[in-house]
Amino acid sequence: MASRKIILDEEEIPKQWYCILPDLPKPLPPMINPKTREPVPPQALEAVFAKELVKQETSKERWISIPEEVREVYRLWRPTPLYRAVSLEKALKTPAKIYYKYEGVSPPGSHKPNTAVAQAYYNMKEGTQRLTTETGAGQWGSALSFGCMLFEMKSTIYMVRASYHQKPYRRVMMETWGAEVFPSPSERTKFGKKILEEDPNCSGSLGISISEAVEDAVTHEEAKYTLGSVVNHVLLHQTVVGQEAQKQMELVDDYPDLLVGCVGGGSSFSGLLWPFYYDKVSGKAPKDTDFLAVESTAAPSVTKGYYTYDHGDSARMIPLVKMHTLGHMFIPPPIHAGGLRYHGMAPTLCLLNAEGIVKSKAYNQIEAFEAATLFTRTEGILPAPEPAHAIKAVIDEALKCKETGEEKTILFLLCGHGHFDMQAYDDYNSGKLPPYEYPKEKVDESMRRLKELYPWLEW
Ligand SMILES: *Cc1c(COP(=O)(O)O)cnc(C)c1O
User: With bands split at pLDDT 50, 70 and 90, how would you rate the model's confidence at 1?
Assistant: First the structure.
């Protein structure tokens, strides 16, 4: 009988995070200031982020110690379980072995507190009194509210207006942890006011909310800004996920042939991927593991976007970053997977994709919910809409194995539960979900505009 649930002792919570920067196949292209056209010195980022986080952002060290205070908080829900999807395998009649690492057991219900707690901790140490951030569907906002609550700090969350009204329960969760939450665009920032003057009914986007949260932080001495994905230090903090998964796979004497995860900004998947990538580059991996990043066809940054320099936010307050992008003025279709609606992607993941090390694939939300429903009816856990996209990819791979007879070991990240996404499931169940496919022409058009803005950029 294969064991279904593989758990670790508290002592097995990793003591260090793994930083991929020294092991990338090429150096990461630097951030560029569009005015000077020069690389941004890391110290410039200290205007928005805590110093320690800026240091981690460009770390040359492979292993970074996790403060005991942060590990102490991790104990609330870590180590997280790893499951063998015995019932799903049976339903698919596949010879493949499917495992998933489940991050939905954290209090906010996703992987995001792995970094929220670390970021709140370092900010508290450096005397920050209030943290600002953006949130889409509310996963990141709730993780940060949770982190700030634990270290007795205030938090201000700019929530994309469409979600603020459609998904009130995440807001209530944030407020219960003590956060103040505003629908974005809001009247609280210059940029928010400007957008509202142009379009009083603007439903918002992550790019707009980021601009508001950054503006709030840079105009208030006591506040700093935080990000929930994309940047190196966030991905770094997520590597507890992959390190635990390695130990768990060892316990069942198995090793993945394929790793799968959904990507919005790329943090959860990188948290799983980086430690396995390190196994590979350091010659420790017993197999030549493939890596597959899965996104939504409604926000297909990697599969349809351009790999070029662009801004991470709509107001162009954040310097230019080399990444796969749909353009910084991208307003996403209103799909339910709020976490997959960002226009850009983590620069490290983009580099690995450009080098052919990480493959990518996109699915629409109907395909994703169909897969999530099969998963719920076999494994019991109800996934968030974002990892539902990864589940779809896993099912496709497992069905391929059925044809070829390959006994592949597949490991995917179930990065959150879907308990706040019942409207999405209801819409799917009643056949009301449109598939959404973001057109290539629209990507080309925003890239033309980016080119006009910065004709000096190399393409
Ligand atoms: C935020 C979020 C995502 C997308 O962000 P990544 O940085 O790509 O992980 C995916 N799934 C869940 C459950 C999320 O909360």
Answer: low
- Ligand 1 atom with minimal separation from the 340 CA: 4
DSSP β-bridge partners for residue 224: 131
Q: How many CA atoms lie within 13 A of 349 on its CB side?
A: 35
Ligand 1 centroid vs 127 CA: distance in angstroms?
29
Choose which residue among 267, 294, 296, 349 to substitute to test ligand 1 binding: the one with the highest number of ligand atoms within 8 A of its C-beta: 267
For the stretch 346-372, pLDDT in tens is 999 999 999 999 999 999 999 999 999
CATH 3.40.50.300 assigned to 16-61+111-231: no
Fold topology of 4-14+78-109+233-453:
Rossmann fold (3.40.50)
Q: Kindly state if the Cβ of 229 falls inside 6 Å of ligand 1.
A: yes
pLDDT digit string, tens, across residues 162-191: 889 888 999 999 999 999 999 999 999 999
Where do the structural domains in the chain lie, given as residue ranges?
A: 4-14+78-109+233-453, 16-61+111-231
CA of 455 to the centre of ligand 1 (A): 33
C-alpha span between 362 and 377 (Å, rounded) = 23
146 vs 57: CA distance, rounded Å: 23
